Amino acid sequence: MNEIMKMEHVSLAFSTVKALDDLNFTVQAGEIFGFLGPSGAGKTTTMKLLSGQLRQDEGIVQVFQKNVKNNDHDLYAQIGILSDNSGLYDNLSVYENLKLFADIRHLKKANIKEVLAKLKLEGQEKKLVKKLSRGMRQRLMFATVILHKPRLLFLDEPTSALDPATSEAVHKIILDLNKEGTTIFLTTHNMEEADKLCDRVAFLHQGHIMECGNPQELKVKYANNCICIQTNQGDMIQTTKDKKELISILSKMDNEILTIHSVEPDLKTIFLNITGREL
Ligand SMILES: Nc1ncnc2c1ncn2[C@@H]1O[C@H](COP(=O)(O)OP(=O)(O)O)[C@@H](O)[C@H]1O
Ligand SMILES: [Mg+2]
Fold this sequence. Notes:
Strand content: 25-35%
CATH superfamily of the largest domain: P-loop containing nucleotide triphosphate hydrolases
Number of helices: 10
CATH topology of the largest domain: Rossmann fold
CATH class of the largest domain: Alpha Beta
Bound molecules: adenosine-5'-diphosphate, magnesium ion
Distance between the termini: 32 Å
Strand order of the largest sheet: 6-7-8-3-9-10
CATH architecture of the largest domain: 3-Layer(aba) Sandwich
Largest sheet: 6 strands, mixed
Helix content: 25-40%
Shape: globular
């Protein structure tokens, strides 16, 4: 496979706060790569390094097999970045917003119609952005970042403020873009989303990658260590096979136990086991 991004021994501090600590990973062309971690883990900072918006203190950051430089126009022509500050203009229409983004990128023949169709926004061209529903707004933000057909998309928590139905629509957009060949770097703290969308995930904790792999393979890798206890009150408690921990949980339990069995853990549980932190 073709390597599209790479970080080697990357560290970055904001004055006394060490935001990233010896990051190492690669992303292959065609992957949906998930960068998972709780708030403050360093997800956005990593994305900013990869997209040339910040410089690392140490290490190597490569995209398309070239070192990333600040404000690199060659790079910007090939990537799209969706973050919560992907500013739309509220008092302009859907079409005017897209035209503006096309002009900023000097796209002579922007496929505004094609992009509108792709994001199911046909017929909404004249609507003012301030009148859009949240879901439509998010779809329009997507439209603005794929107008120039980027090979690589950075999505910073694309569903964090969305309801389940809108999240579902966004997931479909992500999968469709990926099917067309777009490589996607996605940050999220939603482990179910990561499990559903990502070919590989990295678990980020305090600026360091604690684990990285295919979700299914990670579940198998950590399966042996996971026990599920179900009580008559409907509780489902997951713990590790660590005897002391298991005994401690059992001894504190008031409810009657219905079942105890080993299970395939979900990504949330694996993250908690590795980092000791909830998402
Ligand atoms: N511009 C900045 N100045 C100072 N500290 C920052 C800055 N940006 C991020 N940080 C700090 O770096 C750490 C990682 O932040 P961030 O990458 O935004 O995390 P995430 O996106 O995972 O929530 C946090 O401790 C945050 O407070
Ligand atoms: Mg962030």
